[in-house]
Amino acid sequence: MNKRVKALALMVVMTTFFTGPSLAAEDAALLKDMTSVIALLGLPCGQVVSVTKKGDNDHIATCKDGNRYRVFLNAEGRVVAQKQ
C-alpha cells in the first residue's frame, strides 16, 4: 500500500509540473490569437494583454490601450468583436 501512495503522489506532482508550462503556452497563444482577430476586424487595440473566458467561443479581451472587446461567434458562425 505504501508503494501505491508514493506512486500516486509522484503522478500528481509530475502532472502538476508538466501541465503548468503548457497552460502558460496556451494563454500566450490565446492572447496572440485575440490580438490577431481584433486587428483583422479593423478595431483599435494594439495588443491584447488579458482574456477572460465567458463560455465556449466567447471571451472578453482587454487591450494594452484600455479598450475591451467581447469576441464571440454569432448565429451565422462568424467571429464578432463588440466594444465593451
Summarize the structure.
The protein is an alpha+beta fold and 84 residues long. The chain contains one helix and four strands, in the order αββββ.
Secondary-structure blueprint:
Elements: H1 2-40, E1 48-55, E2 58-63, E3 68-73, E4 79-83
Antiparallel strand pairs: 1-2, 2-3, 3-4
**Oligomer category:** single chain
Q: Which structural class matches the secondary elements? A: alpha+beta
Average of pLDDT:
78
Question: What is the rounded distance between the termini?
Answer: 55 Å
Rg (C-alpha, Å):
18 Å
The biggest sheet, with number of strands, parallel, antiparallel or mixed sense and barrel status, is:
4 strands, antiparallel
The 3D shape can be described as: globular
Strand content: 25-35%
Q: Find the count of extended strands (DSSP E, 2+ residues).
A: 4
What count of structural domains?
1
Query: How many H/I helical runs?
Result: 1
How much helix, percentage-wise, in residues? 40-55%
- Widest sheet: strand ordering: 1-2-3-4
| Uncertain regions spanning at least 5 consecutive residues | 20-25
H/E element sequence? HEEEE
What does this structure look like?
Mean pLDDT is 78; it is low at 20-25. It contains one helix and four strands; from the N terminus they run αββββ. With 84 residues, it is an alpha+beta fold. The chain is globular and about 30 Å long. The termini are far apart. It has one domain (24-83). A hairpin with a 2-residue loop joins strand 1 (48-55) and strand 2 (58-63). It has one helix spanning 2-40; strands spanning 48-55, 58-63, 68-73, 79-83.
